[in-house]
């Protein structure tokens, strides 16, 4: 064995060929599961896409680096399931570009955060975390309530997502800015259109309590309140038990 390695080190071409061979085997092992992805990813007929306001909130979540301290993937371990809820399924991330599974938990996992707390709780928590969680190490994001949400480019965001496979319709793309406004203003005709385009179960309400304008806080809270609620696939009784 050592003789073979010694001889390979003395032959540049042989060493390169051997490295390519070994790397190819490793790459094939990693790629092989993708050939069966249609059989391994669960089906979720009730899966819906993110609304424009939720897309904007997700962009803010990424912009502010929330993924660095919060994961969005519950593993198949009993202690995680008992704490956070049903373990995450691949289908639940079908429309996430990029995925925000994360690898660190300075704060808790957020995969099933949707509608666990009230909008007011989230608004206070993001404005000053220690007002609701005394020991929190999370920084305050007071500017979210101050900054007006930009909506004129939301159609472009939805178009980009459709390019990578998210099934947005032409109507949803064309009305993105109006739907973002409507989702946070429940007493308007625009709100009715949001329900028609994205489903009656869509969260439609004043997320930050501010009535005169749409804020970054509206968008981020709307996104947080839908986490884990795009589909009920993980709650179906035929899912295997946690380890």
Automatic annotation (TrEMBL):
It comes from the Bacteria. Pfam families: FixO. The chain crosses the membrane at residues 12-35. Residues 52-228 form the Cytochrome c domain. Signal peptide: none annotated. One of its GO terms (molecular function) is electron transfer activity. Keywords: Heme, Iron, Membrane, Metal-binding, Transmembrane, Transmembrane helix. NCBIfam families: ccoO, PRK14487.1. This is Cytochrome c oxidase cbb3-type subunit 2.
């Amino acid at each position: 064995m050592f003789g073979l390695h010694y001889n390979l080190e003395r032959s540049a071409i042989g060493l390169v060929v051997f490295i390519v061979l070994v790397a190819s085997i490793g790459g094939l092992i990693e790629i092989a599961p993708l050939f069966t992805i249609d059989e391994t990813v669960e089906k979720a007929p009730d899966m819906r896409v993110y609304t424009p306001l939720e897309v904007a909130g997700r962009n803010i979540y990424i912009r502010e680096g929330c993924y660095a301290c919060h994961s969005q993937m519950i593993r198949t371990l009993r202690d995680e399931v008992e704490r956070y809820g049903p373990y995450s399924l691949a289908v639940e991330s079908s429309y996430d570009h990029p995925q925000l599974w994360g690898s660190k938990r300075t704060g808790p996992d957020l995969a099933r955060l949707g509608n666990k707390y009230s909008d007011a709780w989230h608004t206070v928590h993001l404005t000053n975390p220690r007002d609701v969680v005394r020991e929190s190490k999370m920084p305050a994001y007071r500017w979210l309530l101050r900054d007006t949400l930009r909506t004129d480019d939301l159609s472009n965001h939805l178009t980009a997502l459709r390019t990578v496979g998210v099934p947005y319709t032409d109507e949803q793309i064309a009305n993105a800015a109006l739907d973002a406004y409507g989702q946070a203003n429940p007493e308007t005709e625009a709100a009715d259109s949001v329900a028609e385009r994205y489903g009656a179960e869509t969260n439609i309400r004043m997320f930050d309590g501010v009535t005169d304008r749409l804020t970054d806080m509206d968008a981020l809270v709307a996104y947080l309140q839908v986490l884990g609620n795009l589909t009920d696939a993980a709650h179906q009784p035929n899912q295997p038990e946690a380890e």
